[in-house]
Amino acid sequence: MRIGFIAGEYPPRQGGVGAYTRILAGEIAKLGHEVHIVSREGTVSDDPALKLSPIIKRWDVSSLGAIRSWARGLDVINVQYQTAAFDMSPLIHFLPQIITPVVTTFHDLRHPYLFPKAGRLRDWIVMHLARTSAGAITTNHEDAARLAHLPHTMLIPIGSNILKPLGAEFDPSAWRKQAGAQPGDFLLAYFGLINRSKGLEPLLESVAALRADGIPARLIMIGNAGTSDPTNIAYMDEIDALISRLGIESYLYRLGYIEDDTIIGSYLSAADAVVLPFADGASYRRGSLMAALRYGCATVTTMPAVSIPTFRDGENLLLVPPNDAPALTAALRRLYESPPLRERLKVGAAALSHEFDWSQIAAQTVAFYGAVGGGASPSRTASR
Q1: Is the pLDDT of residue 17 over 90?
Q2: Do 308 and 365 meet the contact criterion of CB atoms below 8 Å apart?
Q3: For labelling, which of 73, 74, 165, 211 has a CA lying 20 to 30 Å from the CA of 292?
Q4: How far from 370 is each of 54, 69, 104, 142, 167, CA to CA, in Å?
Q5: What superfamily in CATH does domain 2-159+357-373 come from?
Q6: What is the rounded distance in angstroms from the CA atom of residue 273 to the CA atom of residue 219?
Q7: 350-381 residue pLDDT tens
Q8: How far is C-alpha 20 from the chain's CA centre?
């Protein structure tokens, strides 16, 4: 099969969707398929098996001719859709009427900005893309529920962008020392892009509260504001101000954006717990959560907004209400006082991580392409 990916984000631009596209395309190529990717000028590929065409100056009407020429002869085109990508251009929502067959992977179903007072048109344009696509892939239960009424949909989760296993030489004490932790310190880790949905305020408040209670908490922060959404830069300034107001600068180890998988995996694994208190609840859409599971970390996160049967409180995750600093503080205190609970969560996380194996994700995706392209009705929203 000749498969094309339309990627609004692709390396070297930071962003989870770009990394997802690179990894999934590579796994699909390993299955014997010919994979083409079109993206903006300046993007590069480190995988010779992928045929990258960095030919798009802007995702607008001027790019139509280039997209049509690139798509010629492809068996299926997979749009990797995210609201903040593609320069927020309305054009992307009409691609299924311009080239075909198009399968759209929805990394989120948030409303895009179109113009002031666009109102209901913002929801309509996203749903128009879903309705006119030959098939729609969702990556999480929330979006799967919204598209469940469409005939050709499937939930296929994302995997971790952080892939390298830790070697036998891994020494957690060395990484803890690098982060400023002393023996006996309660070392926490946060990983991911920094924006308003990540729940950093209650996490920082919890670190301050734990310190005030005499618990020697410290926090590793891995990640920055990213490049896909300019509003994240202003939010980062707010976080800096909160850190200063709480007086916890000396208890934080801030790494910013890290490309090296080994460094990220080592810090996550060296921490006593990874804390990801998403404001909108834990979800399959969160690559940072997948990374914590992949490394078998004791992980504290927030209760999902919808039922996710694979997330089991106290077994593979410790779940707290979103935007609730006292509840998060209590959960972290519980972990500090119970090493057996930390070990149970680690075992459960490692078992759960198999749900998000990239080879399995690639096989499910290719099967969906085949079902849509062959005219058969693929499974409706998967029962994950």
Answers
A1: no
A2: no
A3: 211
A4: 27, 23, 14, 25, 38
A5: Glycogen Phosphorylase B; (3.40.50.2000)
A6: 10
A7: 999 999 999 999 999 999 999 997 433 333 33
A8: 8
Residue carrying structure tokens 């085949």 = 370
Residues 213-250 pLDDT 10s: 999 999 999 988 765 566 778 888 899 999 999 999 99
Architecture in CATH for domain 172-356: 3-Layer(aba) Sandwich (3.40)
CB contact at 8 A, 147 and 106 = yes
AA letter at 135: G
Each residue's pLDDT tens digit, 123-161: 788 899 999 999 999 999 999 999 999 999 999 999 998
As a whole number of angstroms, the distance between CA 158 and CA 21 comes to 10
The pTM assigned to this predicted structure is: 0.83
Long-range CB pairs of 141-146 (<8 Å, 24+ gap) are 141/283, 141/284, 141/304, 141/306, 141/307, 141/308, 141/384, 142/109, 142/283, 142/285, 142/305, 142/306, 143/106, 143/108, 143/109, 143/285, 144/381, 144/382, 145/306, 145/381, 146/109
| Residue 359: φ, ψ to 5° | -65, -35
Look-up: residue for tokens 């049509």?
Answer: 68
